[in-house]
């Protein structure tokens, strides 16, 4: 009963326009003060420890930073050129290329909105020019952008791993097959729609253009290799070099180097559009000035700002989680659900429904922080693979990102495309249906999620 | 995503704004560098700064706790505006005021909690009272001796040994230093919430959350993505 | 859930409830307190770091937000450096020597050594002796040279690895399995039950039975809370805790050996050392003692050695 009150308060505050983080935090504080003996100081402790005590979450600022360098540093536009060279000549080719570019960028970036911004800002305009409707372009990108959290690296997976103590490396591997599947399903859908509606197709520029575009995008695409080889090693040749968290930091440094010294679209070697960029030989002091260049500072600052707003929500969700744990709510819910004689199938349906509803109101990472500890013990009890559960949650979060009122990808797409949010919602609907089918598939075919991590890292061990 | 555009008006406001932005960039840059250098040290030189992990985590906490107030100032925090956007101007202003009041209450409670948590580490007294500070307690044992796990002691803080640690030397940085960000950051947060509340009251701002429908915000994001 | 009027004891720890020695002991304590002190006292256990990890739990205890915890002994080094004696390599011959030392006046005094800072040590709980594992055979101490070992963040353990010319690496416990498997770090040190429970043996070349250190816990409470209890209630509680401690500590050797056997049963390699080989490890690591003699006290070291000699 008390708990129902707590959640009602959270949602009520959110609906009147209180920031999500404050809605979560204040409700938790009031609940704690009213119903327990625990001190207010413990709230401050939770707040601080949300960052300082969660090594895994440290990957979030780093992946955000890497992705910022990638988008401001011109990696996105090179990836798009490569994608168009590959599939642009098909019917609906530019849209298919947009999905393909989102998939590639998703493999560099940990976030969905970042993927939409990086790819959408270029592709939507290009699609309009090529004769697609603005709505179709926005719908495609809003959906394909959600692959940002399914294809590794992924901030939402990092949050799930942190909340449940499963390995981040495993979660990342588990996202590979579902990510490719979802991307391919979207592409097929577009191809069919394009055939029916007679959408435009681009020109085939030949293998030469593919090769040239690939060479140009190579340094950006290398980041995928660095992340994957760095985390998993190459069997028989080298062990891994860093943990997933460190991989994110290394990716940031690499992205910085590529953006400033290789592509030179930002930093001391950049020149106005149309002019030849400086070379390092002309300005060797750039090696030092790059670190303090306004472009570098601005990218760090923008990434920092995004980290702060996201972590403020996560930290307050962790405060809510702390208060729920303190009151032993997860155990009560778990025993109630188990006493009801729930089977795995019914349980997964309930999880899907909770997340789909929650996803309407909440930012995905914050929602995961709260829901994962509630359902995780039950899932283990029912013999559901924790990695499989994680992927189900991630796919639910994807859907949450393109459904109102809180749909991060909707916000961003409406900004990028310059159209009202409700119009983006309508535009995204047909593809949303594809994601729903995909969710059902992922929920009931565990193999899709567990095959790769099990094959490469052995079966999941549950140590708790 | 971007907030309502914030433009500092006075010279001081500009200086503070630059300071905040620089600090955010600097802390994130430092976190990245420390982590990266430790990877290089481990893989290339088979060594590491044993304090690297802990320092990075402290910087992470500082980044967020110092940064939240700045994000209130520039209205960058996420919220749900679907309902409030359907309201006519009058009621919309009323709920904006209510939500500002809610934020101020949150800021007050969080600040009290932060003080109560930090004070014993600084050999100060936490406040009396469960909901509201009713003066300071007496006789709470201090935790000034409590050091971090691995962060080296810095010379500039040696004076703390005499000031709060009964003259005992610190062999590691005491926790009072990293935790100081809590009372400082939450006080700043409270101040920014109050400022935002006043802003809603005198009509200079519409709400405390990022607006997604407002024309200027859309334009702002679109401009950002064009790269200017 | 607890009833009104009962004294609530929150016990936060970081392991599971049914397989780890600490978790088993905590569950038994909970069962007995809730059974025998029903109506007076009620214990709630928060396992798996769900409420606090070992680092945060002591702060929370001083704040009055949790009443009982059992962190590993190295967590108390901040309170008093004497506790570093348990991290010193080859300080104790075996778990019986550890037990005898903890039961001696020195050990008893250690429980009371933090009262001015607000903590009261109650009972020592055993996990067991630590072993080294790595991604290559460790026979001679020189085999560890150049390898990266994950250790707990403690000055003594860092010095211990440096004495072997190995590189100590700080790392969150939850990352260790993946890091060992993927080769981010080469080795680690832990007790049999942890090596088995965390499945570290699966991703290592083998484990060398060095018994070079001890991993134990101190059940601890806040002085203020303990003082607030009625004498009878407190005595009954402490007696139950004492009995649970005796029962579980006596069984821990068996838990340890079962874990060791279970590792062997999977086909994993365990390397035993000849007395000469073991001596080489002792010679390599013992210089660490001098480094920390000032912290732990020469007399305490002497007391520990006396106990070793009597075993
Ligand atoms: Na991704
Ligand atoms: Na949503």
TrEMBL record, chain A:
GO terms for cellular component: plasma membrane. It comes from Marinibacterium profundimaris. NCBIfam families: dctM. Pfam families: DctM. The complex comprises the extracytoplasmic solute receptor protein and the two transmembrane proteins. One of its GO terms (biological process) is C4-dicarboxylate transport. Residues 7-448 form the TRAP C4-dicarboxylate transport system permease DctM subunit domain. It is a multi-pass membrane protein. The lineage of its organism: Bacteria, Pseudomonadati, Pseudomonadota, Alphaproteobacteria, Rhodobacterales. The chain crosses the membrane at residues 6-35, 55-76, 96-124, 136-160, 172-196, 217-235, 241-263, 306-324, 336-358, 365-384, 390-412, 424-447. GO terms for molecular function: transmembrane transporter activity. InterPro entries: DctM (IPR010656), TRAP_DctM (IPR004681). This is TRAP transporter large permease protein. Keywords: Cell inner membrane, Cell membrane, Membrane, Transmembrane, Transmembrane helix, Transport. The keyword Membrane applies. It is found in: Cell inner membrane. Belongs to the TRAP transporter large permease family. Part of the tripartite ATP-independent periplasmic (TRAP) transport system. The keyword Transmembrane applies.
From TrEMBL, chain B:
Residues 31-119 form the Tripartite ATP-independent periplasmic transporters DctQ component domain. Keywords: Cell inner membrane, Cell membrane, Membrane, Transmembrane, Transmembrane helix, Transport. The chain crosses the membrane at residues 21-43, 49-72, 93-111, 176-194. GO terms for cellular component: plasma membrane. InterPro entries: DctQ, TRAP_DctQ. GO terms for molecular function: transmembrane transporter activity. The keyword Metal-binding does not apply. Its main location: membrane. Belongs to the TRAP transporter small permease family. Part of the tripartite ATP-independent periplasmic (TRAP) transport system. This is TRAP transporter small permease protein. The lineage of its organism: Bacteria, Pseudomonadati, Pseudomonadota, Alphaproteobacteria, Rhodobacterales.
């Amino acid at each position: 009963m008390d708990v129902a009150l707590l959640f009602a308060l959270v949602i009520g505050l959110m609906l009147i326009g209180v920031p999500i983080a404050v809605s979560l935090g204040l409700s938790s504080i009031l609940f704690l003060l009213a119903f327990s003996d625990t001190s207010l100081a413990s709230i401050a402790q939770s707040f601080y420890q949300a960052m300082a005590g969660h090594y895994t979450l440290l990957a979030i600022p780093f992946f955000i930073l890497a992705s910022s360098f990638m988008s401001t540093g011109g990696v996105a536009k090179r990836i798009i050129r490569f994608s168009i060279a590959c599939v642009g000549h098909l019917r609906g080719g530019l849209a298919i290329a947009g999905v393909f570019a989102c998939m590639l960028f998703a493999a560099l970036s940990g976030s969905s909105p970042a993927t939409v911004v990086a790819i959408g800002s270029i592709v939507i305009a290009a699609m309009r020019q090529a004769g697609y409707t603005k709505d179709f372009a926005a719908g495609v990108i809003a959906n394909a952008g959600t692959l940002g959290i399914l294809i590794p690296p992924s901030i939402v997976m990092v949050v799930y791993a942190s909340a449940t103590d499963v390995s981040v490396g495993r979660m990342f591997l588990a996202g590979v097959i579902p990510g490719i599947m979802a991307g391919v399903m979207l592409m097929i859908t577009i191809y069919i729609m394009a055939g029916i509606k007679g959408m435009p197709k681009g020109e085939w520029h030949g293998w030469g253009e593919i090769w040239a575009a690939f060479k140009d995008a190579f340094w950006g695409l290398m980041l995928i290799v660095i992340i994957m080889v760095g985390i998993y090693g190459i069997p028989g040749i080298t062990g891994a070099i860093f943990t997933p968290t460190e991989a994110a930091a290394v990716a940031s440094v690499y992205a910085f180097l590529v953006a400033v010294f290789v592509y030179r679209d930002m930093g001391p070697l950049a020149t106005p559009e149309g002019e030849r960029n400086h070379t390092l030989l002309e300005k060797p002091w750039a090696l030092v000035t790059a670190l303090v260049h306004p472009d570098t500072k601005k990218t760090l600052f923008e990434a920092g700002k995004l980290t702060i707003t996201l972590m403020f929500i996560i930290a307050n969700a962790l405060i809510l989680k702390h208060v729920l744990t303190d009151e032993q709510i997860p155990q009560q819910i778990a025993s109630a659900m188990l006493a009801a004689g729930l089977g795995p199938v019914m349980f997964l349906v309930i999880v899907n429904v909770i997340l789909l509803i929650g996803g309407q109101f909440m930012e995905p990472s914050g929602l995961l922080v709260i829901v994962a500890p509630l359902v995780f013990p039950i899932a283990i009890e029912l013999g559901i693979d924790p990695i499989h559960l994680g992927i189900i949650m991630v796919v639910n979060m994807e859907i949450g990102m393109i459904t109102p009122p809180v749909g991060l990808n909707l916000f961003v797409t409406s900004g990028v495309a310059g159209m009202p949010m409700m119009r983006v919602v309508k535009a995204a609907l047909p593809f949303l249906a594809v994601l729903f089918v995909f969710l059902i598939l992922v929920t009931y075919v565990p193999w899709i999620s567990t095959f790769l991590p099990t094959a490469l890292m052995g079966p999941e061990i549950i140590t708790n | 995503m971007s907030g309502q555009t914030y433009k500092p008006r006075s010279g001081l406001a500009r200086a503070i704004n630059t300071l905040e932005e620089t600090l955010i960039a600097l802390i994130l840059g430092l976190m990245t560098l420390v982590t990266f250098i430790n990877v290089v040290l481990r893989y290339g030189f088979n060594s590491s700064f044993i304090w690297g992990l802990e320092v990075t985590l402290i910087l992470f906490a500082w980044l967020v706790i110092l940064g939240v107030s700045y994000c209130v100032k520039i209205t960058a925090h996420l919220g749900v505006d679907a309902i409030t956007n359907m309201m006519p101007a009058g009621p919309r202003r009323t709920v904006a005021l209510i939500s500002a009041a809610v934020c101020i209450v949150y800021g007050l409670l969080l600040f009290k909690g932060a003080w109560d948590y930090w004070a014993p580490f600084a050999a100060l007294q936490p406040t009396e009272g469960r909901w509201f500070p009713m003066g300071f307690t007496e006789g709470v044992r201090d935790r000034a001796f409590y050091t971090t796990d691995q962060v080296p002691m810095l010379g500039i803080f040696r004076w703390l040994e005499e000031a709060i640690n009964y003259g005992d030397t610190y062999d590691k940085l005491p926790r009072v230093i990293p935790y100081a960000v809590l009372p400082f950051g939450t006080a700043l947060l409270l101040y920014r919430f109050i400022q935002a509340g006043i802003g809603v009251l005198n009509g200079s701002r519409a709400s405390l959350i990022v607006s997604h429908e407002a024309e200027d915000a859309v334009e702002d994001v679109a401009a950002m993505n064009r790269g200017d | 859930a607890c009833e009104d009027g009962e004294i609530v004891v929150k016990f936060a720890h970081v392991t599971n409830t049914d397989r780890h020695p600490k978790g088993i002991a905590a569950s038994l304590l909970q069962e007995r307190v809730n059974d025998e002190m029903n109506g007076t006292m009620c214990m709630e256990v928060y396992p798996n770091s769900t409420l606090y990890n070992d680092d945060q739990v002591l702060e929370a205890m001083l704040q009055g937000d949790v009443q009982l915890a059992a962190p590993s002994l190295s967590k108390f080094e901040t309170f008093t450096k004497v506790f570093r004696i348990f991290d010193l390599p080859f300080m104790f011959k075996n778990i019986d020597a550890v037990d005898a030392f903890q039961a001696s006046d020195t050990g008893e005094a250690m429980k009371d050594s933090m009262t001015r800072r607000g903590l009261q040590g109650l009972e020592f709980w055993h996990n067991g002796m630590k072993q080294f594992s790595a991604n290559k055979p460790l026979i001679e101490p020189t085999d560890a040279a150049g390898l990266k070992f994950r250790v707990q963040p403690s000055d003594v353990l860092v010095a211990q690895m440096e004495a072997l010319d190995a590189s100590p690496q700080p790392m969150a416990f939850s990352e260790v399995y993946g890091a060992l498997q993927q080769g981010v770090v080469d080795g680690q040190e832990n007790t049999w039950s942890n090596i088995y429970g965390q499945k570290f043996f699966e991703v290592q070349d083998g484990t060398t039975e060095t018994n070079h250190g001890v991993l134990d816990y101190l059940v601890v409470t806040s002085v203020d809370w303990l003082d607030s209890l009625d004498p009878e209630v407190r005595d009954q509680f402490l007696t139950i805790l004492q009995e649970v401690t005796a029962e579980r500590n006596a069984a821990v050797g068996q838990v340890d050996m079962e874990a060791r056997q279970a590792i062997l049963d999977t086909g994993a390699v365990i390397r035993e050392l000849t007395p000469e080989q073991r001596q080489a490890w002792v010679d390599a690591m013992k210089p660490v003692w001098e480094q920390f003699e000032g912290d732990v006290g020469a007399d305490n070291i002497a007391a520990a050695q006396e106990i070793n000699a009597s075993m």
